[in-house]
Every structure is written in C-alpha cells, then in structure tokens.
Amino acid sequence: MQEKWWHNSVVYQVYPRSFKDSNNDGIGDLNGIIEKLDYLKELGINVIWLSPVYESPMDDNGYDISDYEDIAKEFGTMEEMDQLIDEANARGIKIIMDLVINHSSDEHSWFMESKSSRTNSKRDWYIWRDQNEDGTPPNNLRSIFGGSCWEYDKGTEQYFFHSFSKKQPDLNWENQDLREELYRMIRWWLDKGIGGFRVDAITFIKKPEKFKPVIADGQDGLRVVKPNYPGVGKFLAELKAESFAKYNIFTVAEAPGVELDQLSEYSGDDGYFDMLIRFDHVDMDMDESGQWYAKKDWTLLDFKHALTKNQEAIKENGWTALYLENHDQPRSLNRFIPKEDINNRSAKMLATTFFFLKGMPYIYQGQEIGMTNIEYETIDSYNDISSIDQYNVALEAGLSKEEALEVVHRRSRDNSRTPMQWSEEINGGFSNKEPWLQVNENYKQINVEKALEDKNSLFYFYQMLIQIRKDSTYSELLKYGVYEEHLNDHLDVYAYSRSLNDQKLLVITNFSNKEVHLNLEKRSKKIVLGNYDDTPLLNEIVTVRPYECMVYELD
Ligand code: NOJ
Ligand code: CA
User: Fold this and answer.
1) Which terminus, N or C, of the chain has the lesser number of Cβ atoms within 10 Å?
2) What is the residue extent of each domain of the chain?
3) Considering the entire predicted model, what is its pTM?
4) How many angstroms separate the CA atoms of 115 and 124, rounded?
C-alpha cells in the first residue's frame, strides 16, 4: 500500500450537541470541545470526527444544513471553529468535518430560491417533478424517516424529492453548477487545514433514470428508497478529482448499498474514498426490511463472518473504518453483551475485538468510559426523528405501545446521543441547565472523573490500545499485517491473528460468560495484554475465562 500519515490514526467521534456545554444553555458547543481537547489528548487519539456543526434548523440535528460556510449559532461562531482547528492541530489532532451533500436543509437559500419559481436559476439544483394525472406523487418511494419521498409545493405546483425528512430536500447532482459550487465549498474547508471529511449518505446522490412506480413492501403502499444506483461512480470520481485529491487528507464515506466486491472501486488507494463505513457487522440484528421492530436473531458467527469478509475484501490495498458504535447506533455494550454481564471486563473484551483489525479505529464519545443505552419511559422524551418514525411504523405493524417503546429502547439513535457523562455533578457535568436530551441516570457510576481516578478503568485500557496502535513495536504490523481468522466455527470465541514479516499477534476474545478451553496449536512469546490480572501464557492449550481477552505475540 502507499503509506499515508493517517494509517496509524485513531479517531474519536464528537457529537457536538451532547459533548460539553460551555455556556449553560443545555446544548453542547465548540467551546465545550476546545475545553476538552486535553482530555482527548490524554486518551491519545489524533483525529476528531465532528458531526455537523454548520448552520441548520436542526430537524435532523445538523444533518440538514442551511449554510455550509457558517456555524450554527447554538454551537458557536466561525472564529471559534477556526480556533478549534488550530488548538487541535497544536495538540497533534486533526479535525475531520461531516460532509452532508446528498441533501441540504429546506431552509438553505439555494432551496428557497429553487422553490421560488419554476424558472429560477436554481430550480434545477433540486429534484422537481410534476404530479401524476390523478394528482398522486411521481412515484411511491418511501423516505428513510417516514412518508413519501415526495413533498408537494403549492406555490409552483410540483413535487420535490427527499430521501430523508421533508426538511432535507435532495440536491440534484445532475446539475453541473451545483456540483461545482459544492467542490468549491469543500476546498474552502480544506484550505482551513482540516484533516479530511466523513462523507454522509453519499451513495444516495444518484437517482434512478425515471421515477417509475415500485413494488411496495407493506409500508403504506410505499417502498423505502435505495442507494447506490448505477452511474453514481461518475459523480464520485469527479468529486474526488475536484476536491479531495488536491489535498493530503483522508475521506471516510458512509456508502450504503456498496457490495463487498465493489470495495476496491469505492475505497482504498484507487477508490473514490480512502475507506468506507460498512454496516454488515451492526445490521445483523435487522432483517431485509430495515424496520427496527423486525428483529433478527444473530450469533457470534454472524459478527465474525461480517468482520472477516470485510477484512478479506480490503486485504490488498484497502482500508476500512473499524467501529462498534456511533451517533446512529445504540451503545455497543448493550448490543453485544447481555445486560447482566455489562461491566468493566466485558467492555475491555469488546474494545480488544475491533482494535487490532486492519483499518482505522473509531471511538464514539462515551464509549471509552462504557456509556450505555437509555430507556425513556415515554416516546415524548425521545428527540430523534427516526425513533419517532420507527415507533409509528411498529404501531402500524400491530405492536402495542409497550412493545413499540421496547423497540425504541433497543434501537433508538438517542441511546448514543445522551449527554456525555463527565462527573457526578448535576447533569453529569455536561451542563448546569437541563440538557436538550435527558442525561442517562447512571452518570453517578459511569463518568469521566471516576474513570480517570481508577487505573483499572476502561479509559486507561483504551489509552493503552491507542498507544499500541500508534506507537509501539506492533504499529507497523497493525497497519499492514495480514489478517487471518482462527476457530472460525467457534460460537463463543472470536480469534484472529495479524502478521507482518516474522512478527505475529494473536487476539482472543471470549463473548460468553463460560470458561472455554482452546487448542490453538500456538505458543506465546509475550503477553501483550489481557483483562484479568493473571493472563496465562499460551502453551498450545489455553483456558479462556468469562469475557476474557488476551493478545499475544507468537513464537
Ligand atoms: C447518516 C447520518 O449519520 C445520520 O445521522 C443522518 O440522519 C443521515 N445520514 C441523513 O443525513
Ligand atoms: Ca451551549
């Protein structure tokens, strides 16, 4: 592979709204992030992915942008943004921005102009269509956050298209002026010295040639809009050439719909992006419909299989985002560990699972202290637009209110959006004022202050993992070493090795509360880490205790 500065980077994702409120209005902000840079420096990360902070009416918490070159007032100012970039750079931390260019907000001046008349010069920057003869929308696609993808505009008597909420109209990528304006905006940000972009929902930018009626899948005669239509590659190649390729940065794209055998086209040395965020290992508990209530049972084999397939697909010159949670996913402890077994030990085991794979590890805020899901008692306490939609979908499908709420407890994006738990103080030290989203009541047990006082905490374990990746005798191996899965059929243990030249690491993680006896036909030269005080040497046969993890350098 071509060597890149970011190959040994570890990313920390900040969800600004929930990270730290510096002026006590109940909403996290840029100054709050600046205040906590030393904390992140101590953790050891060297990239921050900032979820959107641009001007926005916040219909989808900033993923609906009304000005790409301004900052939302509640988060701060452009001067503070520049200061954050500089202060982070001064600590060896690069900021990567979220790039949301499949859609804008309906309050963006572009859309307001586009909507003002059929002849406006920006009319074609969005997707407008006539209604059918019987007055129905152009077709029956369902938007991701509920209802038709088409919203009628009385003023100009046409429908506009939105893949997500109706306040997130899709941009028309067929229009060259629009594309050029987007590339200019991207370069404007890159010129500020940021480290790159996390690119949002990018495979949605290409629409079908014709919006023909589709076969419904049971939801109100509608079928959910799908990403990655043929032809998207032309736009992605141009996007890269006109913006990213001109800078020494990296891009990580959320690219739903991309198949594993398309990975080398979409990512890696010659791909449209440096790496993709894949969903295989987190979507295994959801059936084809993608509806939250349609729960699918999964086993550790599904998880291992998903990770291994991805590792194999990027073997040659690819890279990938390694993650277990983010602002769209529930907390990983709740997803992967039975409730009664969530503790410091199982959390360390889970951290070990993904940290030694090939790619770039992403830690989502609070993951490093073991934050967990929230269970609000009524749907009214939820803020997330898709939680409310999916609650209604569950009710329509015949679930009772209790059952629908249970679905939301399990899957809601608010699970990971509750305020960061800094201390035992009121509202977990996030803010003196009641936060925009209720803090998780376990903040007295789980918080940063406590974690920093306890040498055995998950925080220090992550700190060690980061240090091993970035700056140890294993750093080269962790960047470029060959991945191999072991004990592939084992139902409780995930084991893999990475090897480079004559160095080899073996990772063993036990996802069960049972002791398991393994014969790996391997001997350890050195114990790299473990989550029990007395990690045994590996001597052909090894007993792995409940939720134990061990990493060995092999003979
Ligand atoms: C993916 C983002 O991660 C999610 O939070 C957002 O709602 C959608 N894209 C729409 O922008
Ligand atoms: Ca604030």
Assistant:
1) C
2) 11-102+176-208+227-373+441-465, 481-554
3) 0.98
4) 10
User: What is the distance between the alpha carbons of residues 22 and 30, in angstroms, rounded to a whole number?
Assistant: 8
Q: Residues lining ligand 1, judged by CB closer than 6 Å?
A: 60, 63, 100, 164, 200-201, 254, 327-328
Residue 469 contacts residue 502 (beta carbons within 8 Å) = no
- Catalytic position from the list 74, 254, 325, 389: 254
Domain 11-102+176-208+227-373+441-465 has CATH 3.10.450.710: no
The DSSP 8-state label assigned to residue 218 in this structure reads S
C-alpha dihedral over 158, 125, 138, 132, to 10 degrees? 40
Cα of 11 vs its chain's centroid, Å: 11
When pLDDT is averaged across residues 250-270 and rounded to a whole number, the result is: 96
DSSP string, 354-391: HHTSSSEEEEETTGGGT------SSGGG---HHHHHHH
Q: What contacts 440, CB < 8 A, 6 or more positions away?
A: 371, 372, 374, 418, 421, 428, 446
254 counts as catalytic? yes
Residue-wise pLDDT for 504-550, tens only, equals 999 999 999 999 999 988 999 999 999 999 999 998 889 999 999 99
d(CA 398, CA 406): 14
